[in-house]
Inverse folding.
């Protein structure tokens, strides 16, 4: 059975498990807070977040950090719901 | 189909497109119901903007690691437990 990129338990690998920790950067804390606020307001639930993460291209998924996947999924789901226009974040950032 | 602690169950290996919480490494594997949890909103529909009703029963299911990984070389008593929704379980005894 073909397994999606997020469904990783038991994937063959010779690489050791990366158990390293890091201090969370401000943007990571902010991403966590945004997802919490969206959940509490009813704009996006955790299952939608996960579905958004699972929709990433395998190579992009593999290259992305944990909270980068949250960012991708949040933008995807909010755009899908019309709460965010496609490209709106990029346009704001370029001002 | 509902289950009770001690029941032998198999995790369904049916194909399923889209979001679901049954991990691939458990599909088709046989385990034992350890605990009956509450019912929870169904993530498979909730992930697509629905309300997740009707809520689905969740179970804690235990597996022998040697059954999950044929090449497992750890202690023969080593086990893994996972939460699995009722609609992903089939009777296996």
């Amino acid at each position: 059975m073909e397994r999606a990129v997020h469904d990783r338990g038991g994937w063959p690998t010779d690489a050791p498990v990366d158990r390293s920790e890091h201090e969370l950067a401000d943007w990571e804390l902010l991403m966590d807070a945004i997802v919490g606020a969206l959940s509490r307001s009813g704009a996006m639930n955790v299952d939608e977040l996960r579905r958004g993460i699972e929709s990433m291209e395998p190579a992009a998924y593999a290259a992305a950090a944990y909270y980068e996947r949250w960012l991708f999924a949040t933008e995807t789901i909010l755009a899908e719901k019309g709460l965010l226009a496609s490209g709106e974040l990029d346009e704001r950032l370029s001002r | 189909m509902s289950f009770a602690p001690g029941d032998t169950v198999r995790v369904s290996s049916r194909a399923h497109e889209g979001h679901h919480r049954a991990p691939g490494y458990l599909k088709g594997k046989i385990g034992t119901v350890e605990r009956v949890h509450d019912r929870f909103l169904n993530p498979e529909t909730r992930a697509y903007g629905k309300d997740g009703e009707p809520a689905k029963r969740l179970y804690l299911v235990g597996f022998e690691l040697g059954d999950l990984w044929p090449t497992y070389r750890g202690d023969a008593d080593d086990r893994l437990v996972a939460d699995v929704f009722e609609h992903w379980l089939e009777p296996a005894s």
User: Anything to note?
Assistant: Chain A has one domain: 26-93. The helical segments of chain A are 26-41, 46-54, 58-63, 66-80, 88-93.
